Amino acid sequence: MKKVPDTLWIFLAIAAAGVSVRPAQTQSPAPIRFPVVPAVSPLGARNDLPNPYQPGASWGQLPGGRKWGSTAGIAIARNGNVWAIDRCGQSGAGGTSCVGSPLDPILEFDPSGKFIKGFGAGLFVSPHKLTIDKDGNIWVADNGIAEGKGQQVTKFDKNGKVLLTLGKAGVAGPGLDTFDQPTEVAVAPNGDIFVADGHGNMPTANARIVKFDRTGKFIKTWGTKGSAAGEFDCPHTLAFDSQGRLFVGDRQNNRIQIFDQNGGFISEWKQFGRPSGLFIDGNDVLYVADSESRDGNAGYGYNPGARRGIRIGSARDGSVQSFIPDPAPYPPTTGSTSPEGIAADDRGTIYGAEFTMDVKRYLKK
After folding, report:
1. How far from 84 is each of 31, 127, 191, 363, CA to CA, in Å?
2. Among residues 1, 93, 148, 181, which is most buried (max CB within 10 A)?
3. Residue-level pLDDT at 93
4. What percent of the chain has pLDDT over 70?
């Protein structure tokens, strides 16, 4: 059976939604705009699912009256403590948020939000996401570059001792020992390390997954800039399911791609929206944070008809069962709202790290 082009499916979905579509007069058709949010976006993101959560509430008692800066990373350790990345109280990403700051960007809290400790001052330019492995070690990807720092992945023990670094400090590149705006780390049960690389928008920017063994020895890389299966445009977030499959939030392509640990392509899912953050719990419940979907101009963030928020479903079959909508009006008027990083505890309590300088907790109703 001949495969129906994706563009035709989009056209049919729009027509079914009752939106008038004129035939393209040029090679660059006008972007799709929805005056009100549709039940389902053209790419299949559900906006009409039940919301079993209370509104998100600001969370975390930072020391000394400190306020949250932009953040994209949050994780929960086996003991239930919550770890978060803070860009040293500053707004922005990829710049010099932490350069020259005396503040610790890596912060640990108990489940109530009480501050326990921080570390990492002076080590980062723009810390992006944070991962905790099965041994309780903390991995941080730094996608900034300044003053001979950044463009690295760093592994710490729970007390802040540096155990391993990957990449060359202050050097961006496509080599086997360099990154170009790394975004997140995922660690397999056998200790193999997977790095999403990178965050750059230029056509020549890295857009790949880099695999190392547990000692940091390079194994392989896969992916180039593009939108075909196995290609990426801003691989922004990573997670493993119970089968050991690697889920990649291919953000600019508005999809999740699923691979085996050798880079073999398994599937792509677009029904969870535009993935800024992924989290998969021990029961294969998949939490996806969409902080950027927008209508309007067909450029960065363009994912028409997909409301921002958190979609929750199954990593086993791809079903989407619930949706926490972004409280911001639709269509959005700003570049980012809602969580960019996401984690959940064993009770289903969700913690969201926001680029817009906050961390929120979502309790079930």
Report:
1. 37, 10, 22, 18
2. 181
3. 84
4. 92
Task: Supply φ then ψ for residue 57, to 5 degrees.
Answer: -125, 140
Please give the C-alpha separations between residue 4 and each of 10, 175, 275, 296, 321, in angstroms, as whole numbers.
Answer: 11, 38, 25, 26, 27
| pTM for the predicted model, two decimal places | 0.92
Cβ(223)–Cβ(196) below 8 Å: no
- SS3 assignment, position 166: strand
Contacts with 9 (C-beta within 8 Å, 6 or more apart), sequence order: 42
**For residue 240, what are its two tokens?**
């493993």
Question: In the chain, where are the structural domains located?
Answer: 40-362
**pLDDT recorded at residue 30:** 81
Return the CATH superfamily for domain 40-362. TolB, C-terminal domain (2.120.10.30)
27 pLDDT band, cuts 50/70/90, is low
- State the average pLDDT for the chain: 92
Q: Over the stretch 334-353, which tens digit does the pLDDT of each residue have? A: 889 999 999 999 999 999 99
The per-residue DSSP string of 243-286 comes to T-PEEEEEGGGTEEEEE-TT--EEEEE-TT-S-SEEEE-TT-EE
CA of 334: how far to CAs of 93, 211, 293, 296, 301, in Å?
Answer: 15, 35, 10, 12, 11
In what helix (H) or strand (E) does residue 212 lie, and over which residues does it extend? strand 208-212
What is d(CA 77, CA 126) in angstroms, rounded to the nearest whole number? 23
Sheet holding 74-76: strands in order across? Answer: 74-76, 82-85, 106-109, 115-119
CA distance 267 to 350: 26
Is-contact 135 80, C-beta < 8 A?
A: no
Nearest to 216 by CA among 151, 264, 158, 154: 154
The vertex-210 CA angle with 45 and 86, nearest 5°, equals 65
Q: What pLDDT sits at residue 95?
A: 81
Residue 148: CB atoms within 10 Å: 10
Q: Residue 216: which of 248, 192, 241, 188 has the closest Cα? A: 192
How much of the chain exceeds pLDDT 90, in percent?
Answer: 84
- pLDDT for the residue numbered 11: 38
